[in-house]
Design goal:
6 helices, mainly alpha
Length: about 170
């Protein structure tokens, strides 16, 4: 039986479940939340960095689930820290499929390169910031507070849900 966190649950086809509520936000709102230009995340989507998400018809508006926005946001933070986007996405998937899923109150910690295996870096999901130095004494790691990112995405989804829907009869002509 497959892990519940890997089952598709989003209307956009995204296959990972980070436990965020179902939502549908547009590209502009997703760009504001993640601080990533729509052209950049569209390239990432076209390169297959987000499991299950496909490219739709050209010119058609794309809707993003909260789970996809969370993954995109963590990937963007790792890219800002110097990781290549494909490596960042694989790292998020690898970390989330471990025993401790990514989510509220968690840190994604990427250990230093291990001797003899330059392509391999251990990945940890840790609940407490103070625990990081215990797990990886001596530093050399990269840590991302995914709990904060989770909270930001959750707040943005709640804010979007609280906005009144646009009235098509009052749309400018």
């Amino acid at each position: 039986m497959s892990d519940e966190r890997e089952k598709p649950r989003s209307s956009d086809g995204f296959e990972l479940d980070f436990g965020l509520p179902e939502a549908s936000l547009g590209a502009r709102e997703t760009a504001r939340i993640t601080r990533v230009a729509p052209s950049t995340f569209n390239v990432w989507i076209s390169r297959g960095l987000f499991p299950g998400v496909t490219i739709g018809p050209h010119g058609q508006a794309r809707a993003f689930s909260a789970n996809l926005i969370f993954h995109l946001y963590v990937v963007a933070d790792l890219v800002r820290l110097g990781f290549a986007a494909p490596t960042a996405s694989i790292t998020v998937i690898q970390a989330h499929s471990g025993p401790e899923p990514l989510g509220p109150g968690r840190w994604l910690v990427i250990g230093p390169v291990e001797l003899g295996s330059p392509a391999s870096r251990p990945v940890y999901v840790i609940k407490d910031r103070a625990e990081i130095d215990r797990v990886l004494p001596g530093g050399g790691y990269t840590a991302v507070n995914v709990g904060d990112i989770y909270d930001r995405v959750l707040a943005a989804v709640a804010e979007a849900a609280a906005k009144p829907a646009a009235d098509p009869e009052k749309a400018p002509t």
